[in-house]
Design brief:
34% of the residues lie in helices and 22% in strands. By secondary structure, the protein is an alpha/beta fold. Strand 11, helix 11 and strand 12 form a beta-alpha-beta unit. It is globular.
């Protein structure tokens, strides 16, 4: 990813969030979060964050302060930043910054622990840079978010009966965990009780690593999820993805066309397996001649919203 010249000339450290010996506890004004950051980052003379900015399904936008936490945070801190209460806030959504509790908390961590300089970019569908933003962490990120909002978000006037989405192809659609983002984009504009049809390869399956599927498998229906995850004493890695998927499944019927998952795996994820997307659509049109639909060919890359 970095190239031979950089690898041979610069020390590269992979952050491991559950390696306690590599973490330092920081003083911040957050009351309910113990903030642990990577000690190499904390002890550095100059701290520069780099990343790219796009709409994010619960932090508002990526990039900026997220490179510090959760990017360089300990698992305990990450879990708190992604807990049920924060994700359940109605402002923890695509494109929201000022009232988003997650974005505001990660900004507070970054400001209070220190960042000297930031360099963020925005990208187009071909992964080419469309703009560069640098300087003060917060000011630069605000400008980047405004640009991303104008170029990657589209306003719609009313909900749709059916929304067809993808997860923007490989590598973004490599597994079900990532595909939740495309489903989340579709759920923003589907009517309650409507249909979402997602086409996602999922070549990496669920995946097998992480806690996403093991936690998901404990529930028979999405209505059961909130009672467990809302318990402040409950903590499980990847619970945030289960929470969001259950919220989507409670709002609409989620139909998935994929080659990477079995029918049982799809059913255990609160979804319906679709064998032929065209036949599925033909049937829906037959039952409702006035079916109102929307297509999101790139899933989480272009985000629809209501004003």
């Amino acid at each position: 990813m970095l190239g031979e010249e950089i690898v041979n000339s610069v020390t590269i450290i992979n952050h491991t969030c559950d390696e306690k010996s590599s973490l330092i506890k920081m003083n911040t004004s957050l009351n309910d979060i113990d903030v642990f950051l990577n000690k190499h980052w904390v002890e550095a003379d100059v701290k520069i964050t780099t990343g790219f900015v796009e709409p994010h399904f619960f932090a508002g936008f990526s990039g900026g302060s997220k490179l510090v936490a959760p990017g360089l945070a300990g698992l305990q801190t990450i879990m708190k930043l992604h807990n049920f209460e924060r994700l359940n806030n109605p402002n923890s959504i695509w494109g929201e910054i000022d009232n988003n509790p997650i974005q505001q908390d990660v900004r507070k961590i970054a400001k209070e622990t220190g960042v000297n300089f930031t360099l963020d970019v925005t990208l187009n569908r071909d992964q080419k840079i469309t703009n560069v933003f640098s300087g003060d962490l917060i000011d630069s990120h605000n400008i980047a978010c405004d640009f991303a909002r104008k170029t990657a978000m589209v306003e719609v006037d009313k909900p749709y009966d059916i929304v067809i989405t993808s997860n923007s192809g490989y590598p973004l659609d490599q597994n079900l965990y990532q595909t939740v983002k495309g489903l989340s984009a579709a759920s923003q504009i589907v009517r309650k009780g409507g249909e979402i049809l997602c086409l996602s390869e999922c070549s990496d399956g669920i995946p097998s690593h992480g806690k996403f599927y093991s936690l998901l498998s404990e529930f028979n229906q999405p209505d059961q999820v909130e009672d467990v995850l809302a318990d402040p004493n409950f903590h499980c890695q990847d619970q945030w993805q289960v929470q969001i998927l259950s919220q989507i499944a409670k709002k609409a019927n989620v139909n998935l066309y994929t080659e990477g998952l079995s029918d049982d795996e799809i059913r255990n994820a609160f979804m319906i397996s679709v064998q032929n997307p065209q036949n599925f659509l033909n049937q829906k049109i037959l039952t409702n001649k006035n079916l109102r639909g929307c297509v999101l060919p790139e899933g989480p890359i272009t985000i629809p919203f209501f004003n």
